[in-house]
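Q: I'm teaching a short session on how sequence maps to structure, and I want students to see two examples side by side rather than one. Could you give me a first protein with its sequence written out and its structure tokens following it? Keep the formatting plain so it prints cleanly on a handout.
A: Of course. Example one:
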Amino acid sequence: MEPVWFTFLNGADIARLHLTDAEILDAVEDGLRAQGLGRTVIEPRVHLVPDPAFNGHFNVLRGYVAPLSLAGVKIVGDYVDNYRQGLPSEMALLNLFDPRTGMPVAVVDATALTEMRTGALTALGARHLARQDSKVLGHIGARATSYWNVRLLDRLFDLTEIRVHSRRPESRRAFAERLERDLGKPVTVTDDWRSCVEGADIVVEASRLERPEPLLRTEWISPGALVVPYGTNSAVELDLTDVMDKVVVDDWGQAHAGPFGALRAHVDSGRLNKGNLHGELGEIVAGLKPGRESPGETNLFWHRGLSLSDIALGAAMLRKAEELGLGQKLRFS
């Protein structure tokens, strides 16, 4: 048998790619379109909790994207207390395979990839479900993915007011300073949830709660707003879905499976089900279902995170790395 080689992209390689906002958005949107057209296979994520005392778990995401001729498995650790050790709360590896033979194609440091694709999914959801004249963002959470939420939302909407809040004062201040430096516009740091989200056109809830707690009040959501909750544990009230004209998810298969997710209680109680779900974002991107249809709509987009987005962005990284001569070729067999 001839030697088999695969590509390894480490974190330094990913940084040297200097992916543009447009490249990130386009790659993730291509994955959504393929999903909407039925040209993908996605398995609901599964979880491994090694020991509750470690205050963290692993997510395992699996999928196949036919137009890219790639299958992929991503394993991402989600450890809330990692900041105490100077580590990211989420670190990941993406494994890409040839779906026809099962042979490895690449192993990618997917930590930054996860942050980018999560922000892209938030922004693309807003592109289709928020008012196009949205200018005020209220963002809860300062985790690594939060930066890309705000950056890519600003790319699409040219926001005039950005408010941020998170549990730790030092983290929200550092988050705001980074955003101000990179976006070149002021960012308001708020001391509480209400002043952050009340009256905002787009509300993103990316909190890091250790247990479900209804900190985001439904009464604070303005008519015509878009709400994007994706925290691991629910921070919203049960009646949040009652005020929504459209509820959209990234994938219903994993939205109603597994123990985690911002709307877990809504699914478990039957409040959110296949019958009252408007659809998946991929169906909207593919033109099979409408997105926002009027300025007065109040909408919600809940995403758990798609293996398809990981694979699509990973493929874009591989292509650019090859063009730039980055990465290592490692022998598999």
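Q: Perfect. Now a second example for contrast.
A: Example two:
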Amino acid sequence: MIGILSISALVAIAGVSFINLSPQFGGKPSELSLKKMNNSPNFKEGIFINKEKTLQSTGFKWQTIPQFFTNGNNKVPNFEIPVETHKKSDFISDNNQSKITWFGHSAALVEMEGLTIFIDPMLGEVAAPHPMLGSKRFNKVHPISIDSLPIIDVVLISHDHYDHLDYGSILKLKEKVKQFYVPLGIKAHLTEWGVSEEKITEFDWWENINYKGVEFVSTPARHFSGRGFTRNNTLWCSWVLKSESNSIFFSGDSGYGNHFKEIGEKYGPFDFSMMECGQYNEQWAQIHMTPEETIQASIDVQTKLMMPIHWGAFKLALHEWTDPIERSSKKAIELNVKMATPKVGETIVLNGGKFPSEKWWIQ
């Protein structure tokens, strides 16, 4: 008994030490950031809250725990998924056509009004604070390495979870980036990792900025946040990108909710939207959408063309890895929603013409 208690104590000490001493867990907000957080209508009693009552757990099932540690039941691909690769010059264009290149999961490189915008640039191998704590990325190569990327005008972050805000990726990217636009509280993580404070702007919901002809608006999402032991000490959001030529919506991580219609009414219709579709489960039904809810949310935001994201890169739930795209494809046909299905690395050009629709996940 004493031996078991001793081992348990050592494990607990090691865990606490790892979180307190490892830089990937980020930093604590400055006085200026804390003042802005405390003034936010979305910050109550020391934590951020959703617009709608939201449960992070909707019926946890202990018997499912072992399933998270296996790859059976088609939870990961049994073949090497296709990836279209690029060189730096592919992302340096003189024309003003808006383009979106999917990097897998929720990472996307957007070219708009001459700007290069990287959204949730998580290019790490594992969506976890340590390689031993998560399953590996499905694709073995990236569309382009971080070292080969051109200068990035703006990096947008939706929230601080490891599959969206990656310590290693930020370290490699930070010298290439002119501006970081992030939800409240996340500035502390970036400055802890060596990003210059002058490069970072924090946003509450509905706050906006115009940068070289593109309006960036931080809009609501229905989710949560947290690294380490703490939760909801930073804000989460979706993003609107709007210019004279095009309008784009990025959902971030979100359960289905009334905020989609509100965003559509304020900023729609959108030419293109990237909508969360994956890593759902009945045990956390209010913080992630089912594929059918994803299609309805696309209708709510009034988008002309949508692309499912948050799938095709990591095993973070218990569904088959193709379940998100199969179910959303079926619902999109049923509700007459145009849906793009690019391969990882495939570029979508917003010119009103053709868009990727190949069922590349079928082998």
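Q: What should students look for in example two?
A: Point them to this: Confidence is low (pLDDT under 50) at residues 3-21. Also worth mentioning: The first strand starts at residue 43 and ends at 44.
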